[in-house]
Write a structure and sequence with these properties.
The chain is α+β, with helices and mostly antiparallel strands and 303 residues long. The protein contains three helices and 15 strands. Strands 4, 7, 8, 9, 10, 11, 12, 13, 14 and 15 form a ten-stranded antiparallel sheet that branches. Strands 1-2-3 form a three-stranded antiparallel sheet. A two-stranded antiparallel ribbon has the order 5-6. 15% of the residues are buried.
């Protein structure tokens, strides 16, 4: 009330608790008013006012915290959804890798069988052992996949070593045609063209024009370059493991003793040197000191 004044007086009544008197003094035209309140009411009002003041000060801070937490929760929910998507795609990739790995294992097993090898099997759980309790299934799958991958890598390394050995064996085994042409005589008994007597022919004869290229039939080292009365100009190549090949009646020799040659490398040219009825290549294969039929190394049948 405009112009009013307040006065608080304290009055003790006999046999009663403290009470307070609130005097409301209006302007001079009106009578003053008294308002009696107990001490308990005053204390309660003070506490209430303090509580309201505290709430007024704390409320904005709490509201900001709530908003911050709400924003954080929304971000976490979005991030969680994104991670779920990544996990799903990752699981799909793991499944695809497992299928591919199974295919590689199958192919490696077939190759091992062809090479006469035994592939080391990898347990389904991989090399990582039993999965720990409460661990993510995806992590367990990754452990298993890692174990399988290590096993396959080891198997492939074994296959690679075996293939290298096999490749060296193949490269050092006489297995290709020494020259282009047609066969005039095979390995075995025949009538000698000079004496008409039955004699054993220790190689095969390939007929073609003079100067036709002659090639090494396997990797090796030139062990001898000679001129023999019957065979004319000849080259012997040692291939290891008891194999030696001979090329005779050459018109020209293009290698030297001790020279390393590879399968398919040019070593000379066809001719008719020595005891010969015309231009041709006389080709022999020796194994462990004995002449053998070259046809079986050329994938042909003798005749």
């Amino acid at each position: 009330m405009a112009g009013s004044r307040f006065r608080l007086g304290r009055k003790r009544l006999a046999g009663s608790t403290d009470r307070y008197t609130l005097l409301i003094l209006p302007d001079r035209r009106r009578r003053f008013r008294k308002l009696h309140v107990s001490r308990r009411f005053v204390v309660f009002a003070a506490i209430a006012a303090g509580a309201l003041l505290t709430a007024g000060l704390i409320a904005p801070h709490l509201w900001m915290r709530v908003q911050t937490q709400r924003t954080t929760l929304e971000h976490l929910a979005s991030e969680n959804e994104r991670l779920r998507g990544q996990t799903a795609r990752f699981e799909a990739s793991v499944d695809d890798l497992q299928r591919r790995l199974s295919g590689i294992e199958t192919a490696a097993g077939k190759l091992a069988n062809e090479l006469g090898m035994e592939m080391q099997s990898v347990p389904a759980g991989g090399a990582g052992g039993t999965a720990l309790a409460g661990r993510s299934p995806l992590l367990s799958e990754l452990d298993a996949l890692s174990g399988r991958t290590a096993g396959v890598r080891e198997s492939l390394e074994q296959l690679d070593d075996a293939f290298r050995v096999r490749s060296r064996l193949i490269s050092a085994t006489p297995s290709i045609m020494p020259a282009q042409g047609w066969f005039s005589h095979g390995f075995g008994w025949r009538k000698d063209p000079f004496s008409d007597k039955r004699r054993f022919h220790r190689g095969i004869d390939i007929v073609n024009h003079r100067g036709t290229p002659v090639y090494a039939t396997a990797d090796g080292v030139v062990s001898r370059v000679v001129r023999i009365a019957n065979l004319g100009k000849a080259v012997d190549i040692s291939h290891g493991r008891g194999y030696v090949t001979r090329f005779a009646h050459l018109s020209e020799i293009l290698v030297k003793p001790g020279q390393k040659v590879e399968r398919g490398e040019l070593i000379g040219k066809m001719g008719s040197t020595g005891r010969s009825t015309g231009d041709h290549l006389h080709y022999e294969v020796w194994h462990d000191g004995r002449r053998v039929n070259p046809w079986k190394y050329l994938g042909q049948r003798g005749g």
